[in-house]
Amino acid sequence: MLKSKLTIISPIIVVAILFIFSLTLFPSISPAPKNMPIAIVNEDQGAVLPNNTEMNMGNTISENIRTQAIPGQDSSIKWITVDSLTEVQKGLNNKKYYAALVIPKDFSKNQVSLQSPNPISPEIQILVNQGMNPTAANIANQMLSGIVDGINGNVRTQILEGFKMNGNTISTEQASLLVSPIMKKVVNVNETGTKSANGNSPVSMFQPLWMGSIVGAAVMFVVLSKAQFRNRKQKLLGIFMQVLVGAILALIAGFGLTLLADSMLGLSIPKFADTGLFLSLTYFAFFLMISAVLMWLGIKGLPIFVLMLFFGAPLLAMPPEFLSSFHRHWIYPWLPMRQMIEGLRELFFFGKGFGWSHSVQMLTWLGLGSLIVLVSSSIKKVKVNEIQNEDN
Prior knowledge:
60% helix; elongated; alpha/beta
């Protein structure tokens, strides 16, 4: 045993395994957001004070918020200025922002009224893009609520100092409003609903589809590898049959998983047919990709996709802004399954149907590229077999 090469290199193998599987745990350990895109909309039209000076608290708040970031360092929030509420709503629907802070037109006017006999509380609206990512939505809501609470404290102090300097008394109504002078209104946009596994239903459907595509591709590879082909045409015919069976399996897996999720798992499937078609396309793209790799590397290429499952699962539920630089730039962009998650989010939470979306485009190109690799690898093997036959 001591002379065995396997015994000698076993410590290296163990350390390598520990390192590889530790990488799957790092993303979920104390995740912290970096440069989360959050929009800020300032529609405040300003107000005129009793001394005829103009005031625009919306501009002041916007400038203070944007100047909080330290130059050269990553901030938790990447503030993006948007001109109107209509524009920011389009951005939320297009998944550009995790949330938005909206200052309405009458903000300064209502704030000035807090020192009058008829006070009206100014309001700041927080739009939370819940369907984009539940983790990011909760964090964004907490951060924006904390910002509004801080503004509340500053406004309360300013108003009290104004009353003190002018020697005015505070009415009961004014005193009640000064507890929280600015109202905070939180609105969830693209809501996930109650039957969505806390917004993680797209991620929960990934693992069974991924494992099903691995099993389907592996079975067809074994069947094809045992077949005897006399020439290139027969080999290409075998590849065609493999692809055809993969297409049939894709329809069964796509609509079957949709039915199971809707009936047995109790997940909300707003558009059954569109979801079934999208999952079928996803399965077929994964099937072709795995089949192409197996044709080049053989059955020993199968662990690659098992490792992708271990690496991908912890990352798919997290927004990219919460990942480390290594995971965000070197692992996350290369995960083909993230297109499945993004596509399902659009179907489940953004009211979109099965169309030529970015996710569908990427999965289609993945399938076509894998098909080319699959066919070319088969032709290469046929050429080798033909040379061997000629030598014999």
